[in-house]
Amino acid sequence: APDSEPDSFFRSPSAEDAVHFSLACAAPPVTCELPFAGNMNKVHPEQDSVVISVQPADAPDSEPDPEPPQLVIEETPLVSTICGIVCGPCTFINSWFTVSEGEKKIVLNTGHIVGEATEPGCNFFNCCFREIRSVSTKLMSMELTKSKLVDSTGNPILVSAILVYRVTEPLKALLQVVDMDNTLRTQALAILRQVVSKFPYVSDNGTPCLTHDTATVNQQLRASLQATSKAMGVTISSFCLNELSFSEEVAANMLQRQSAEALLSARAFITQGVASLTTMALQELEKRNIRLRPHQRTQLAGNLLALLSGVEKD
Q1: For 34, phi and psi rounded to 5 degrees?
Q2: Count of other CB atoms within 10 angstroms of residue 61
Q3: CB count in 10 Å sphere of residue 10
Q4: Of 34, 65, 64, 37, residue with least CA distance to 52
Q5: Given pLDDT bands bounded at 50, 70 and 90, which one contains residue 2?
Q6: Where does the pLDDT of residue 28 fall: very low under 50, low under 70, confident under 90, or very high at 90 and above?
Q7: How would DSSP label each residue in 167-235?
Q8: In the chain, what are the helix, strand and coil shares in percent, each to the nearest 5?
């Protein structure tokens, strides 16, 4: 190029040139730093360059920032406010309940266990959809009236018993059994029937019987009932026989039998005593050097037996 026109061919690019170049290439927004040319005005004397950012014409505008969510507070209807003021204190007061000494309660809400009140005093659970079930943990007794049972020998007898128990697991007693008292009574009658059928009413050979071995019978009654009532949360303190007698249809015959057995026992006892006295009498005669012939000993023994037993001799 001629030396006379250096600025027309070799000049620094201006800001207008950068804009035209960016628009021609249809490029994304461009940011560039250009040095000042001779015909550009400087804002600051010490400024040597300018930064230019160019965005194509067809580039979509950037989306505006979303507005932050706003909290809208609506006014509470007057009816709701009045209901809250009226029902709130009532709900709070009705949510309190008391537990007495020797009592336990469980709290259900819509069929689910939400709490258990075991300590005496005031307790608080929301009364909405609430159900409270209580059970006494005090010592209780139950009388089983006379029932006609059969002993081990097949004799019908009348037996009554007294049961003493206590609830130790309220959850089982309230939720795992329907009508605990009736269920316990039914089980006690079944156990009483089973145990009584293992023992005779009376025994002559020294085996355990109902009339003389009541401690053994009661212990077996309690152990058997405790095993079956464990699922109900009940602890058996005692299970004892109360009344024991023969049934009406065999009472007269059994009384005659008992009278005959008593008479035979008395006769046997008297015979043993008379024989012992006769033997002692003969031994005393021999000690005193009184010798008797055999027929005299027999006659003396017969006279003593007749005399002592109260039987007249023909």
Answers
A1: -115, 140
A2: 6
A3: 8
A4: 34
A5: very low
A6: low
A7: E--HHHHHHS-SSHHHHHHHHHHHHHHHHHTTS-SS-SSS---TTT-HHHHHHHHHHHHHHHHGGGTEE
A8: 40, 25, 35
SS3 67: coil
Dihedral angle, C-alpha 39, 44, 50, 54, nearest 10 °: -90
d(CA 26, CA 28): 7
For residue 302, give the nearest of 310, 291, 292, 313 by alpha carbon.
313
Which pLDDT tens digit goes with each residue over 85-123?
Answer: 767 777 777 777 778 787 888 888 887 888 788 778 788
Q: How far is CA 202 from the centre of its chain?
A: 42
CA 286 to CA 271: how far, in whole Å?
23
Phi, psi of 90, rounded to the nearest 5 degrees: -65, -45
Residue 164: pLDDT above 50? yes
201 close to 270: Cβ distance less than 8 angstroms: no
Contact 156, 245 (CB under 8 A): no
For tokens 């006295």, name the residue.
Answer: 277
Reading phi first (left if > 0) and then psi (alpha if -120 to 50, else beta), residue 111 is in left
**260: Cα separation from own chain's centroid:** 56
